[in-house]
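Structure ticket #2291
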Amino acid sequence: MKKTLLAAGIAAFALGTTPAMAKTLVYCSEGSPEGFDPSLYTAGTTFDASSKPIYNRLIEFKPGTTELRPGIAESWEVSEDGKEITFNLRDDAQFHSTDYFTPSRPLNADDVIYTFNRQMNEDNAYYQHNNGSYEYFNAMSMSELIDEIVKVDDYTVKFKLTRPEAPFLANLAMDFASIQSKEYGDKMLEAGTPEKVNQQPIGTGPFQFVNYREDAAIRYSANPDYFRGKQPLDNLVFAITSDAQVRYQKLRAGECHVMPYPNPSDIDEMKQNDSIQVLEEPGLNVAYFAYNTQQAPFDNPEVRKALNMAVNKDAIIDAVFQGAGQVAKNPIPPTMWGYNEAIDDPYDPEKAEQMLKDAGIENLEMNIWAMPVQRPYMPNARRTAELMQADLAKVGVDAEIVTYEWGEYLKRSSSLDRDGAVILGWTGDNGDPDNFLAVLLGCDGVGGANRAQWCHEPFDKLINEAKTLDDQDKRAELYKQAQVIFKEQAPWNTIAHSTVFMPLRQEVTGYTIDPLGGHSFEGVDLE
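Resolution: structure written out below.
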């Protein structure tokens, strides 16, 4: 209890008074959210601060798994042809009541239709306000897939699809599909402040938003009307702490209870500390280096393959991941079905240098974009960039390292005219290969999640065919063929798949590692 009160005192100092004896968990998050409307973003840091605590989805993932469970929808039925899915909504999902909004009704079918119309309907005021920048929705071709959403009654909604879509239900469990309040959205439009939906969020989730001090802290309180019951925690605080070493110091001192993305070099010491528990599991992730394939000379696959061949990825695993990971040769992790074991991924700097000469490339100058934050798939992008810079210099390439603040980095890196190549990565959102191959490499993701700006028709044809099939073995075979094309075309240099470590104070109970990379505090308690 003493440790809990210490953390509560810290939160109170930073964010205002905290009721005596209230249970407050402090999470030392690694970065600031881009906003609080999860439909607009793809970054895990943003989802951790928005969709995870504040919102619910029609279908959700069972904690610690990629299995589906009911969310806002109590049940659903799929038609025989796979083109109609009917969702039966619960009638007790209450939207948050705050000092800036009081709902007049529970969540109903109107909110579900509103949530998706604002992402797909160009006439919708929120589509126009956000310039149609719904990155996930667009990357997964949702506008082409969803023909119509029908309100059967207040608590029944039917999705009519243009084709069968194997990963559709799992896609609806993803963060971008968090259900928004139509009543709140309409009120903000009427007031002329639609941006407040992204600044002062309203959801039905286990915690409700209290306030945000930019780049410092976010405060939440338990939702007293949550349909799964009030949380054991009274308050949740995100203390934004970008430096992993500082996060670790705070964890040791009891100033935070949970920290993500520790330095690999600190893991052994953490495991020896009696006040800390360290959870770990193989990550469903990939770190990659994406060329802008629409810019010369990176529009030439032979140049891209040569640059890939020049980088010693084993050295990156040793120096950056401290052995807590493995070299990536495919864009999906080896723990995922459909992984192609037969792919070859050589390191051959001499051949790389010759291939560049054969392509007429001399004295190439390029930028290496290095992320400013740690992610589950990349503990230190700057150090990785330095190692790549040295390797590329050996084959005559002069590489300069550039970076930006995280939100700006994500925004700029998706631009069609972005220079050089960008270090980024991905943690799976739903356990399906489509979530990697289509979202990150499909033609619909160009200008958004497809940071390579790569649209290759043979690859696109395979992945689009795969998502229409019910037979997983047949889907897996198509995905294996797609990985062969990916390696031949080399829009990325696949770097690593990491092991995920999660350090917690010993007094934290009920926390589960999310294989999809998120951080949720639903059901978490402090002893």
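Closing remark: The longest strand covers residues 492-505.
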